[in-house]
TrEMBL record, chains A, B:
<dbReference type="GO" id="GO:0004767">
    <property type="term" value="F:sphingomyelin phosphodiesterase activity"/>
</dbReference>
<comment type="pathway">
    <text>Sphingolipid metabolism.</text>
</comment>
<dbReference type="InterPro" id="IPR005135">
    <property type="entry name" value="Endo/exonuclease/phosphatase"/>
</dbReference>
<dbReference type="InterPro" id="IPR038772">
    <property type="entry name" value="Sph/SMPD2-like"/>
</dbReference>
<dbReference type="InterPro" id="IPR036691">
    <property type="entry name" value="Endo/exonu/phosph_ase_sf"/>
</dbReference>
<comment type="similarity">
    <text>Belongs to the neutral sphingomyelinase family.</text>
</comment>
<keyword id="KW-0378">Hydrolase</keyword>
<comment type="pathway">
    <text>Lipid metabolism; sphingolipid metabolism.</text>
</comment>
<dbReference type="GO" id="GO:0016020">
    <property type="term" value="C:membrane"/>
</dbReference>
<keyword id="KW-0443">Lipid metabolism</keyword>
<dbReference type="Pfam" id="PF03372">
    <property type="entry name" value="Exo_endo_phos"/>
</dbReference>
<keyword id="KW-1133">Transmembrane helix</keyword>
<feature type="region of interest" description="Disordered">
    <location>
        <begin position="361"/>
        <end position="388"/>
    </location>
</feature>
<dbReference type="GO" id="GO:0046872">
    <property type="term" value="F:metal ion binding"/>
</dbReference>
<dbReference type="GO" id="GO:0006665">
    <property type="term" value="P:sphingolipid metabolic process"/>
</dbReference>
<feature type="domain" description="Endonuclease/exonuclease/phosphatase">
    <location>
        <begin position="14"/>
        <end position="214"/>
    </location>
</feature>
<keyword id="KW-0812">Transmembrane</keyword>
């Protein structure tokens, strides 16, 4: 790479609100999105909530001349809703489906059926390796009383771990998607502290890049209720458009991810917060498992009683009538019980991973000459870090 | 690293057959396993089928002085059964749960409830990065008529992709576990061709290592029905014990994974075979989804008929009695339908990833001067490679 080398990368991201039969003006919006993407000719267009594979295929046909490479990430029952169109060849791709993603019995929220995931694309641009990630985390239906908080924190952690472990040889890391997180939310901070990624919206000058590269965000635009060329909105979400500029970095600009004392104590603090959140989520999951365990027991008792009544005569018809609902109760409670057992296991797994990172960050803090004794209290989780 | 540097790595692997209440002499075997591991003091002991977390905790207590680091990989409803004990600090760990893992209604086989996964450990040994993976793929219950073949091939592919994407900066890659595959089976070949890993059992001289390192397997032992010190078996599986030797490689010994023409055509051939297997699995999944779709339709018709009969009088009691089993039929068929829809999506996802790698391998073959026209026929999948 020459010293005066500059790479410009134009990126588009949109949550398309593409629910078949439910999202308004879907066909028209997909058509206009295709026209817009063709006209703008971005390097990379990353889309969420493209729930209908037919919509993807239609876009694929339309965008083929401008974006020769494309991929639709399939998962779960409905799908991940994620897809990508690229002007440059996609060298490799894979995906990771999140372990936890809401509750199957919350049918009106539907997230569980989607199989939310993170997709990874590896691109080679001017001799540099770009790892581009696209994701969609669990929706936030009630910010004040968010029953999905533990799941979203677990998803943010899995996302951070997936990026951390798959991007070790990448020169540039780009994460796009709908995180359903505000910039100061726990999940967002966890993601940033553990991966070293920066928010293009907040900090347009420091993106994650290897030492020797310097990525800045030259332009950053969002739509504001309507697409830039037609008056009507493209989606119920706004689109993001950014121009990233990759340059050779003079030494003082090197923005590689390093854990100095300040970063380390920020990491420790956010890990502790996430640990607490996952711990509470786990307690909740185990509480539900216990309750449904009791329901199963009661249902089985009821069934035994009904059997006795049916055999012994008396109110035989009533006993037979009540038999099937009781079986339903036992089976239903059994399914909910199994679900919450695996939920607790999933949260426990994320907590154990977090705890390990927390333990190592604390060791590094204790060993570093700048170690700050003020951060020593509150070690209760760290002391248990070896108990995974 | 000095030129005459040598690192010796002693590894132990065992499928422990640790099913609570069902596996014979479990407590005694776990106790003897702990004694054996303490006495032998391996660098790394990787275990599968440790289904009871209490067994892990007991081993953890016992092995703490010899193996200060340990981790239990939690997932699914029962767990992954995977755990690891290490003499060296574990720098990082994470896991990936396989998308497909059998059928929930095959309760007697139970794999679906386990949440089978691959666990990753990152260790730093003498300045080298070792990525150690432990896994357990779906069991093979009937080799002649294996209904789980497509799932196991999809798991082998996910495993290969996880290793491929997470080991890019590793100096050494070690995979242990119970693959439920013979050395010549499709899943095993797929794994070896895509990751460049070698089988320590078959080829004790060439392990995967970065250029400049040379890994050989100095000793390779398996138990033969009994553990080496006591007469009775440790498990219903045999244990593997290997001593790996990592040395500086003279140039002619460099065994880094490269895709020359021979490797490329082997890769293409195994990818095509796996593609066909996944395609057949997908057809099967869609067939089941269609059948259950019809059952749902019939169940709904029956319910409508029963409603009419109950309202219209006539055989009212019979109608009411049949009502609940019909609802059960519709709900049960609905659940099976949803399961097979997500199964088809999971297989389709693996097929698309495979197809992409296949397309790129063929492009590389076409471009290389040694390209062999004899391999040109049978491009039917390759031509669809861009349709992901």
């Amino acid at each position: 790479m020459k010293p005066n080398f500059t790479l410009r990368l134009r990126v588009f991201n949109l949550n398309c609100w593409g629910i078949p039969y439910l999202s308004k003006h879907r066909a028209d919006r997909v058509k206009r999105l295709g026209d817009f993407l063709n006209m703008e000719s971005f390097d990379l267009a990353l889309l969420e909530e493209v729930w209908s594979e037919q919509d993807f295929q239609d876009l694929r046909q339309k965008l083929l001349p401008t974006y020769p490479a494309a991929h639709y990430f399939r998962s779960g029952i409905i799908g991940s809703g994620l897809c990508v169109f690229s002007k440059h060849p996609i060298q490799e791709f894979t995906q990771h489906v999140f372990t936890l993603n809401g509750y199957p019995y919350m049918i009106h929220h539907g997230d569980w059926f989607c199989g939310k995931a993170v997709g990874l694309l590896v691109l080679h641009l001017s001799g540099l390796v770009l790892n581009a990630y696209v994701t969609h985390l669990h929706a936030e239906y009630n910010r004040q009383k968010d029953v999905y908080l533990a799941h979203r924190v677990a998803q943010a952690w899995e996302l951070a771990q997936f990026i951390h472990h798959t991007s070790k040889k990448a020169d540039m890391v780009l994460l796009c998607g709908d995180l359903n997180l505000h910039p100061k939310d726990l999940g967002c901070r966890l993601l940033k502290e553990w991966t070293g990624l920066c928010d293009a919206y907040l900090e347009t000058r420091d993106f994650k890049a290897v030492s020797g590269l310097y990525i800045s965000c030259k332009t950053f635009k969002t739509t504001t209720g309507h697409d830039p060329h037609s008056g009507t909105p493209l989606s119920d979400h706004e689109a993001l458009m950014a121009t990233l500029c990759v340059r050779h970095s003079p030494p003082q600009h090197t923005s590689s991810h390093s854990h100095g004392p300040a970063e380390r104590s920020a990491l420790i603090s956010v890990l502790r917060e996430a640990w607490t959140e996952l711990d509470q989520g786990m307690a909740q999951a185990l509480w539900w498992a216990t309750i449904t365990g009791y329901v199963i027991g009661l249902g089985l008792l009821l069934l035994a009683l009904l059997c006795a009544l049916a055999v012994g005569g008396g109110i035989r018809e009533v006993a037979i009538l009540l038999w099937t609902p009781s079986v339903g109760l036992v089976l239903g409670a059994g399914a909910v019980y199994l679900f919450h057992v695996q939920e607790a296991k999933g949260l426990c797994r994320a907590r154990a991973e977090l705890q390990h990172v927390l333990g190592r960050a604390r060791e590094a803090q204790d060993l570093s000459p700048e170690s700050q004794p003020a951060l020593q209290p509150g070690r209760q989780e760290g002391d248990r870090a070896e108990e995974q």
